[in-house]
Hints:
Blueprint: H1 14-24, H2 49-62
Amino acid sequence: MHTEWSWDAPRGSMEQSCERALELGLPALAFTEHADWALVHEGQHSVDLDGYFDSIERCRARF
């Protein structure tokens, strides 16, 4: 699943995805973000690894 951390899913939300997974009773959830190191698409942003890992840790703590 792609979240706001992928350049092609700016409206995705890691936290909302976790909330929905809980509602559905899913035992696990996998995030498969695009982490392109070269900026090749219009609107693409560079990878913010610190922000991404912080978001994962917030979700782990909350869910």
